[in-house]
Amino acid sequence: MMRPNLFYADLKDSYLFFHISQKVQAYRQRHPDAHLYRMGIGDVSRPLCGAVIQALHEAVDDQASSERFHGYMPECGAPFLRAAVAEHYRRRGICLSDEEVFVSSGASDELGDILDLFDRDSSALIMEPAYPAYVDANVMSGHRIIHLPSGMDNGFVPEPCPEAAADVIYLCSPNNPTGAVFTRAQLEQWVRFANENGSVILFDAAYEAFIEDESLPRSIYEIEGARTCAIEICSLSKTAGFTGTRLGYTVIPRELVRCGMSLNGMWVRNRTTKTNGVSYILQKGGAAVFTDEGQRQIRENIQYYKENARLLTQALDEIGIWYCGGKNSPYLWLQCPDGRGSWEFFDYLLEEIQVIGTPGEGFGACGRGYFRFSTFGSREDTEEAARRLVRLLK
Asked: Is residue 5 part of a domain?
């Protein structure tokens, strides 16, 4: 008899966002005419910028021409896009070769696929609160998970400790869900810790473009020693609106070696075996993001979301609720008022003012009593949600 992957039996019954959607659907059935103010799941509301749309149209036209048609793409990414990403890093003072950049179908996919590089007996350190997919992907892979708690006392940015010595270390900055950002000194501690213990850091930089404080690192490769211990996983979803278009990239330095094996070379072997590459059309659109005009246009969209964050933080300040995030992140992480539980607060906001957020408890035990707001909604909905929050909670 076929033996399935029994680790799936260790997964929680309901994935966080699926559970939220069920609650919202039940509310819609009772109130079909209600307008809901969605400040929960981090899906963007602004369209792709003009430079990307033009490039996508040109790429579609290429596919209609026998002279410019593209079939299978290189599995690790089109040379023009790998070069554009590497140059983007070099302009920020980070030296990468094109061959250290791998094009992916998005950070979420890559965060799961990358676990192929690690032995099944590996351990994974996950800081809580955490993006649920970190935990679930490692459960599916049979990895031993070490949970590192964080809270108000350390600004939801924990420091290394002896108990944190794991084969794989997840760092996310700006963090999802808390919006907290690692300082340069804090990242230096983790890089030193990883190199001393032979760990590999998976650095989730999906929201790096939202960092406006120039003293804060946007890439782990700004830290000396990171090239021998870190893989950086990036996304164009929130940076450039590719949530429905699916494109990202991963950086694996050639110096990253374990047990005499190059993780860069291993990933080349993995991608050339398991994928046929990302489509030419999407990669042409992605390359436009890294042009001067593309960068200017996506910054306009990012500023739109950051203004949404300002509106929400202004409301929370007026109410007097503790929160972190918002300035260098598209997420706000707040303490539920009046001692309410996370799911209790979710139900309260939905029923009373039709505002949807994300219960902190869904991000792990350390999220109990906390709540996350996303700033990716429309300006009109964000303004009204802010007004309703003040009216209800002040």
From this structure: no
Specify if 188 maps to a domain: yes
Residue 285 contacts residue 52 (beta carbons within 8 Å): yes
> Which DSSP symbol is given to 198?
T
Q: Please tell me the distance from the alpha carbon of residue 192 to that of residue 223, in angstroms, as a whole number.
A: 10
Domain shared by 388 and 280, yes or no:
no
Res 14: pLDDT? 64
Helix (H) or strand (E) holding 337: none
Burial of 371 by CB count in 10 Å (0-12 exposed, 13-18 middle, 19+ buried)?
Answer: buried
**Can you tell me the distance from the alpha carbon of 137 to that of 139, in angstroms, rounded to the nearest whole number?**
5
Nearest alpha carbon to residue 307 among 321, 333, 327, 324: 327
DSSP assigned state of 174: S
Task: Scan for tokens 């990883």, then name that residue.
Answer: 194
68 belongs to a structural domain: yes
The number of folded domains in the chain is 2
Within 10 Å of residue 364's Cβ, how many Cβ atoms? 21
Beta carbons of 226 and 251 less than 8 angstroms apart: no
Q: Hey, what are 137's tokens?
A: 């992907």
Instruction: Please write the tens of the pLDDT for every residue from 3-51.
Output: 999 889 988 766 788 889 999 999 999 999 999 999 987 789 999 999 9
**Sheet architecture: strand order including 370-374:** 323-325, 331-335, 370-374, 358-359
pTM for the structure as a whole: 0.95
Of the candidates 122, 137, 116, 104, the one whose C-alpha atom is nearest the C-alpha of residue 10 is: 137
- 379-393 and 292-319 helices, crossing angle to 10°: 10
Q: Is the peptide bond before 217 cis (omega within 30 degrees of 0)?
A: no
Tokens of 45: 């509301």
- Closest by CA to 360, choosing from 45, 146, 150, is 150
With respect to residue 339, please indicate whether it lies within any of the assigned structural domains.
Answer: yes
Q: What is the pLDDT of residues 103-136, one digit of tens each?
A: 999 999 999 999 999 999 999 999 999 999 999 9
Identify whether residues 268 and 151 lie together within a single domain: yes
For 365, the token pair is: 């035990």
